[in-house]
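chain below, 191 aa
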Amino acid sequence: MDHTENTQESIIKVNERGIVEEEKVDIRETMAQIFKKVLDQKINLTLEQILVMSPKFFDQLKNLLEEEKKSINSIDKKEIQTKLINHHLGNYEQQKLYYACPLGFMQVYLGEEGHEIMPLVDTGSELNIIPQGSEIKAGLTTRCLNMNLRGIGGHCTSIVGLEEFTPITLVTGEGRNIHLFVARRAVHTVL
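prediction:
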């Protein structure tokens, strides 16, 4: 006795000439197409419409969402963070960046003593900026510099110092030297 579920059903269609035809339809394929349409669109449904729908539809939708949740939970967050770091700190001559893309806040260690900071990593940033006072906490020696920096949005920030060849170490253990511009007002550290 075969216990496999029959996934084919016959449906009756009337063609353009008015002739009644019987056609075999794969239920799984049809359900997959419906799921794709439902997930790709916004649909307003009344409670009555929801209750009329097949319970099988909701079971399959629940299974689909559980599979997506499992695949999201299985992602190694440290591996993703490492890939983002490697992409951001790769060879600048090979990268063609035409726009700013903030990747998020990332844990890094600043200076020889390894002072922990959480800068915003931005692939489009032209300057590495740190707020005044943070360089002192990290034990860095700053060269005085007086200039105004105007951002793409029109805001203006006073730059009061420059810290050159500052060692920075990532959570992955990789490191390099960077230049940091010290901003007078409270700003996010941006790399």
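Strands lie at 8-14, 20-26, 102-105, 108-110, 115-117, 120-122, 129-131, 143-150, 156-170, 175-183. The first strand starts at residue 8 and ends at 14.
thats it, cya
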